[in-house]
């Protein structure tokens, strides 16, 4: 399924996005975007099949400009992978974030992905197969209270994915959701995560395989059964337990 496609990966300059870009570039044309041109340039230098554009998906105008540039350059996308994300540790009883910081984080994780998706749908070739992949998180299944913005936005992207799948049923669009566990990237290290992390390249290969076998929802983390149990049966107790565990594991 992911072969001889033109693929846009947001947040493609580092982490999971970088790993996906490198692995997908073997058989596809890959376009990556992000805010750090140095990172984007370094990734694009790894393959002649990777092209980059500087675009911050938390800024509406930069998303619109990105797609104007794609049209101007004659690039028609077959696949979009909404991967860009930022994370935070935020205890509202101890720390104040500015309104700008709050909006920037939610926009990066959620609003930007929705806007990119709409732009992709309007430019897509309706005569061929199109693929939308939303990278959420296993905490979209059950929140970690000390990460309220990340948990809220990823849960929101999961809901959007389900709505999108229903609206685009019986069309030439396939909708996938990837729910990563803690992957060995800068993001968990930023949080001081002391737990075991999954190798980014290994995870990218597993995610690509899941899409290629038409697995619409890929959640490989070992914590997923427990998170689903908490969500169904033990919401209040589960939240307290997850909060206590995460505060010990992360640098809170």
Question: Kindly state the mean pLDDT as a whole number?
Answer: 94
What's the β-strand tally?
Answer: 7
CATH fold group: Rossmann fold
Backbone CA Rg: 18 Å
How far the N terminus sits from the C terminus, by CA atoms, comes to: 42 Å
Tally of separate domains: 1
Q: Approximately how much helix is present in the residues?
A: 40-55%
Weakly predicted, low-confidence segments: none
Largest β sheet strand count, sense and barrel closure: 7 strands, parallel
Shape: globular
> Helix and strand succession?
EHEHEHEHEHEHHEHH
| CATH 2nd-level architecture | 3-Layer(aba) Sandwich
CATH class call: Alpha Beta
The assigned structural class equals alpha/beta
Strand content: 5-15%
